[in-house]
Amino acid sequence: MRAARWEGVEVGSLAASWDVPEVHAYACVGSTNDLARSLAEEGCATGTCVIADEQTAGRGRAERRWSSPAGLGVWMSLVLRPLGLRDPGVLPLVVGVAVARALDAFARPAVPQIKWPNDVLLAGRKVGGILCEGSWDGNSPRFVVVGIGLNVLHSPEDFPDGIRDLATSLRIASGWAPPREEIAGAVARAVMEAGREPVLDSSLLEELARRDSLRGREVIVREPSGRELHGTAAGVAPDGSLLLRTPAGVLRHIRTGSVRRIVPAGA
């Protein structure tokens, strides 16, 4: 059931403050991305936002479960209808930089970083993830649902055992409890602006390079086929692919895959 308020603020006021056409708020849902996709299929306006206090079936890439407990994070999805999207792989990175910018004011002294292809980090640990799911008409997107999960008020014990050593929250990294409503609004506005014509131009690539948590590090990348590639991360290409320099000195473009492991120094 839709809620009239989120974080004590009426949804119409949230929409006006966040500069989006409509906010659909819920106490608990399976997945905000699923609800946003249904709204997109029905023809909702670009920028329509779905936000929930809790998700019971939140997910990340490759259907990995995303822990979304009540009252601790920002679990939201935005419907975008980009004017163009020549390289779909750029969207999670463009959104990632937008989210990182929005978090700058709340995360100090930590600096938000991007881990290819869709993670946001603070102090080397995951604070957020981005899941972009689209519907296409030929080579053009009918719409894209951008799901954003951000750990905000978690203490270490709030994370499941399996991710406790890998995850963090804004509260842990910055030492204060930033208001979820302000964070959600800053993120929504930033993503709306970035998502109109998403492209990794020179200025955005420069910023991504400054925020790139992998650049210069030895990594192991696992491709969807299961093959693992070992090399040094050398940045991100304009099409959103990860640049990986192999031990033989060959520069490879990795368009899909996951960084499964960062190789420790001396390993």
Verbal overview:
It is globular and about 60 Å long. The strands form 3 sheets. Strands 1-4-5-6-10-9-8-7 form an 8-stranded mixed sheet, with helices on both faces. The chain has 2 domains: 210 residues, Bira Bifunctional Protein, Domain 2 (BirA Bifunctional Protein, domain 2, 2-Layer Sandwich), CATH 3.30.930.10; 45 residues, SH3 type barrels (Roll), CATH 2.30.30. α3 runs antiparallel to α5. It has 267 residues and is of the alpha+beta class. It is built from 6 helices and 15 strands.
Question: What's the layout of helices and strands?
Answer:
Layout: E1 2-3, E2 5-6, E3 9-10, H1 11-18, E4 23-29, H2 32-41, E5 49-55, E6 73-80, H3 91-107, E7 113-115, E8 119-122, E9 125-137, E10 140-151, H4 170-174, H5 180-194, H6 202-211, E11 218-222, E12 228-236, E13 242-245, E14 251-254, E15 258-262
Parallel strand pairs: 4-5
Antiparallel strand pairs: 1-4, 2-3, 5-6, 6-10, 7-8, 8-9, 9-10, 11-12, 11-15, 12-13, 13-14
CATH topology of the largest domain: BirA Bifunctional Protein, domain 2
Give the proportion of residues in helices: 10-25%
Quick check: average pLDDT?
A: 92
Question: What's the main sheet like?
Answer: 8 strands, mixed
- Uncertain runs: none
Strand content: 25-35%
CATH class of the largest domain: Alpha Beta
Order of helix and strand elements from N to C terminus? EEEHEHEEHEEEEHHHEEEEE
Total number of domains:
2
